[in-house]
Backbone:
């Protein structure tokens, strides 16, 4: 080999080795090995949403039983993929209260946005004749369970009947969220379209938004999952931010899938500023049943995102009601100008899924599943995405007027007005005082 080629080859080898380990994390899944322990079950039961493991860059969210292929316990987690070590599952067997220990497989999700941390599934095969209700996770197979946090294993008993037809899994409600009017409109649209339950992973929000959330929780529509991720993961640096990571959006998404595995027939994934909008049906139920009839075996449905600019308003005062004017936030009925369809560009999509057909999901795709997927035509439904118009987007003069959201305007206006009236009656002092102070400003 000529000297110059040999030198170039020597320089390339370290680069290729680094590239390999960047693309393929060091903690690849491996077959767990289980051994019986003479110790008795112990440990303190965890009730927090996020639990940091000692001596390991790993944060546990929830544990779920998964028997679709074999009996495993799947922990939804956040890991530092370069620093995570071996982990062991300490099962607490129900029949004799003894511990069975097995090595975990750490399945790190590929969607990390170039960050050192990301979502992961920590998977352990459950030992035979154990039927564990609780489990601990530890970087060693030695020690005492009394010193470890103990997690309940959810979904132990699969259900065939569901509490809800459609459940919404929203992305993280990021810090100081205050877009009140658009939130109320989205919530009422979800209910019009068929949602019976909405899960919100909350970081923080404004005081007024807190009152709105309390109203929907008391109504029985919303369930709040505290998501204090900024207290556990430090991303406030020159290189990274929580916005880059979407506050752990992928982890939240997968937790919501398993949380609703046997509670809801379908799960809808979108952000707070998005609505999966049927164009040929009156609700999701009719739309999904029609799609299933035409596409047997499909259980995962993707919808194209269409961006409606928050920067461009209707020229008239249509839908600009006096009470709505003093509620902070975006009025989606006034934003009916969308970007044209972009050819040869990767269009973002969101999903309606049968959660029992999903193993692992990313923000815009299903990584592992058991079902056919279907790209739903934009003539049947779109993902209505009302957000700020960014500088690098299509120029405002090229935006297209699209009033598809107005198909539901009568029901939406009536529902939003009823919510505002109820809020005014149930929390007269704080709500009315706030609105009066806002009115004086404007």
Residues:
């Amino acid at each position: 080999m000529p000297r110059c080629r040999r030198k170039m080859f020597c320089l390339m080898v370290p680069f290729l080795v680094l590239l390999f380990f960047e693309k393929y994390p060091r903690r690849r899944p491996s077959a767990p090995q289980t051994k019986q322990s003479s110790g008795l079950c112990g440990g303190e039961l965890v009730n927090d949403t996020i639990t940091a493991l000692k001596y390991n860059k790993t944060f546990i969210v929830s544990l779920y039983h998964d028997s679709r292929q074999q009996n495993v316990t799947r922990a939804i987690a956040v890991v530092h993929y370069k620093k995570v070590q071996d982990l062991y599952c300490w099962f607490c067997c129900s029949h004799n209260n003894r511990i069975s220990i097995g090595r975990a497989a750490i399945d790190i999700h590929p969607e990390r946005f170039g960050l050192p941390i990301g979502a992961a599934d920590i998977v352990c095969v459950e030992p035979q004749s154990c039927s564990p209700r609780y489990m601990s996770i530890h970087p060693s197979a030695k020690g005492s369970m009394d010193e470890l946090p103990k997690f309940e294993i959810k979904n132990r008993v699969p259900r065939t009947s569901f509490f809800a037809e459609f459940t919404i899994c929203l992305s993280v409600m990021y810090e100081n969220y205050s877009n009140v009017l658009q939130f109320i409109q989205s919530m009422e649209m979800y209910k019009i379209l068929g949602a019976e339950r909405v899960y919100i992973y909350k970081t923080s929000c404004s005081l007024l938004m807190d009152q709105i959330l309390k109203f929907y929780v008391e109504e029985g529509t919303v369930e709040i999952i505290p998501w204090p991720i900024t207290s556990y993961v430090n991303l406030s640096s020159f290189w990274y931010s929580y916005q880059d990571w979407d506050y752990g959006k992928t982890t939240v998404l997968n937790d919501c899938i398993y949380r609703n595995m046997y509670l809801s027939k379908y799960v809808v994934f979108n952000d707070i500023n998005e609505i999966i909008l049927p164009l040929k049906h009156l609700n999701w139920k009719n739309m999904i049943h029609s799609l299933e009839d035409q596409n047997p075996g499909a259980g995962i449905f993707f919808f194209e995102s269409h961006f409606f600019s928050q920067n461009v308003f209707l020229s008239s005062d249509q839908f600009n009601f006096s009470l709505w004017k003093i509620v902070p936030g975006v009025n989606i009925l006034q934003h009916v100008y969308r970007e044209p369809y972009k050819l040869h560009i990767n269009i973002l999509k969101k999903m309606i899924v049968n959660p029992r057909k999903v193993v692992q999901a990313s923000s815009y795709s299903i990584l592992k599943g058991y079902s056919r997927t279907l790209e739903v035509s934009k003539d049947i439904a779109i993902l209505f995405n009302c957000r700020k118009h960014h500088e690098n987007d299509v120029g405002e003069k090229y935006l297209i007027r699209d009033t598809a959201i107005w198909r539901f305007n009568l029901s939406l206006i009536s529902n939003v007005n009823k919510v505002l009236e109820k809020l005014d009656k149930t929390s007269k002092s704080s709500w009315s005082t706030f609105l009066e102070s806002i009115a004086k400003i404007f």
